[in-house]
Amino acid sequence: MAPSKPAPDPANAVRSAVAAALHRWRSRAGGLTRVRVALSGGRDSIVLLHALHEARRDDTSWALQAHHVHHGLSLNADAWVAHCEAVCCALKVPLAVSRVHVDRNDPRGIEAAARDARYAALQAGATGDQSKPASGATIIALAHHARDQAETVLLQLLRGAGPAGLAAMPAKDGDLYSRPLLALPHSAIAAYATRCGLTWIDDDSNGDQRFARNRLRHAVWPVLVEAFPSAERTLARASGLQAEAAELLDDLAAIDLATISSTDGDSGEDHEQELVVSRLQRLSPARQANVLRYWLARHAIAAVAENTLHEWLRQLGTNNPTQAIRLRAGNLMPDVIVYRDRLQLAWPQEAWPAMPWTGEPSLSLGGHCGSVEFVAGAADETLVLRPPQPGEHWLVRRRQPGDRIALSERSGHVSIKNVMQNAGIPPWQRSMWPLLICNNEVAAVASVATASAYTVRAAPHATEAGGRGFCCQWKPAWQIKTGSQQ
């Protein structure tokens, strides 16, 4: 009888996973300069730090560091810092400690607030270090493993998440974060810790079943694994399939977005700032919902509830060219508004004061209002203003009651409201739209119209240097933010 093969050492799986991750990191553009381990002091992060330290013995071309975030939520938090310091001292690994404030009254829950504070500290520590030799050369290594992934899938499923949520945690999250142990079972992590004689701390909050993950871990997971022993592996695999599905949905949404975005008549470029509602309605309901989610995400707007999204689509289905619809995305978020068959974002706006213009190339109206730019010439000659003349007083201000502009000698003065209506400026933007005033007379509506008396054609004796004139343009804050035009 042939001798039986010894059972594989599960601790070797950790070494192999770390070696594979290092190979990936070194192979990327720019190579690898530094790995910073997010070190909580618990078993998983201690194992990851130790395994990376062991791997670095054979390759010292990269630096290893650790970063502990002190949340201040536990009476034992200072003891955890001391433990991390002792471990890093023994391994001769530099340790950074960040102390953060966590809002205990955050409406999303203390877990979400702590997570956001932790990731902000980790990112600031990695990107704010001036000793970093090159951009993109640092990796923040997170110690999540397959059971963490399986728990996340279950929690997202119980929250009613779609493919993006069920995809759970990616092994690679952008260029900064990486989870080298994500495919490993919890048993491999535990075996490595035992084999290497590691010590760690246990977070006292891990037993508090007021938190959803702890309830799942202590009350549900043991029963689930007893009934389905492969649950950890199969749920983690399911997350990968959901990630593929989410990627395909995004690809489809990108195709649909290109077909329903408004098009600039001059450049022919699609502007994702505006969607054409009549084109959106030609898609199936499922594709409408998918592309709308994608569009909101591209503008960094948090996902709205499923019933809210379908109520939006119901209202959009009743839209007619003369109807205006305002859809609320949530507090501190822009509203989604339909006007003249265009679905747009109405970003928060602030009042801004009138300010004199003395020839500067740009005037800032404030963080939420953007700026007014004065540029030479314009594609539309009717918008080009003559150069200012000595003794004139120019200023930029918002519209006031009774404002009128003379666009031609035949038409006489017309109301600014009518000019804006004809230009298709949405009602919610009109009160903030900049006007250029000369000696108390409206000389121009920024980017829209110029009074006939102030055009270049009205000043035939303008000097050659100033004969080209200039154009007054408004660049709203949201246009600067998204890179698209309104």
Biggest sheet descriptor: 6 strands, mixed
Fourth-level CATH superfamily of the largest domain: HUPs
Backbone structural class = alpha+beta
Please count the helical segments: 15
Proportion of strand residues: 15-25%
Q: CATH topology of the largest domain, what is it called?
A: Rossmann fold
Strand order in space, largest sheet: 3-2-1-4-6-5
Give the N-to-C terminal Cα separation: 79 Å
**Helical residue percent?**
25-40%
If classified by CATH, what would the architecture of the largest domain be?
Answer: 3-Layer(aba) Sandwich
What is the domain total for the residues? 3
The CATH first-level class of the largest domain comes to Alpha Beta
- Shape descriptor reads elongated
SS elements, strand count? 21
Low-confidence stretches: 130-136, 264-271, 461-467, 480-486
